[in-house]
Amino acid sequence: MIDNGKKHLSSFMSERDTRYAIRNTSVSVGRGLLFVISGPSGVGKGTLRKKVFNIFPDLVYSVSMNTRLPRKGEIEGKDYYFVTTDEFKKMIKENKFVEWAIVHGDYKGTPIKFLIDELQKGRDILLELDVQGAMQVKEKFPDGIFIFIAPPT
To answer: Which CATH number fits domain 9-148: 1.10.760.10, 3.10.310.50, 3.40.50.300, 3.40.50.1000?
Structure first.
């Protein structure tokens, strides 16, 4: 790993884990790492994401797209990208999502172009998804690093 004075998310992994990840990933120059935090609702994915971003501020967070109306305090492009249902359905037909689902009657998904562009720039990306979304991402990005958060027993 090139030391540019910035923390890199892969520094969370041991040297052995890093070697394994590199050996089992199609790595090319300038390719970032895709990290996916998933788990059931209420397990603490959001809390973990916030803590990770405090440690690794250069990590990129992929903003989801949503068809519901913005809630008070939500910011376009930071919390979600808000689009109409027709726009979302058109994007589904054009395969523009790495994952998508209908949640409480609204469409929600992660645009794939942003992920590809940022990974090719060498940026590390973090997604916070439910289990079904993570499974869809794994189909398209099998070399990603998937972190499942289980509830306490």
So the answer is: 3.40.50.300
Burial state string for 102-135 with b = 16 or more CB within 10 A and e = fewer than 16: eeeeebbbbbbebbeebbeeebbbbbbbbeebbe
CA-derived radius of gyration, the chain: 16
Distance CA(23)–CA(86), nearest Å, equals 42
pLDDT of residue 5: 44
Strands (E), 21-59: 34-38
Q: What is the pTM of this model?
A: 0.75
Identify the residue whose tokens are 């919390």. Answer: 79
| Cα–Cα distance, 22 to 103 (Å, whole number) | 35
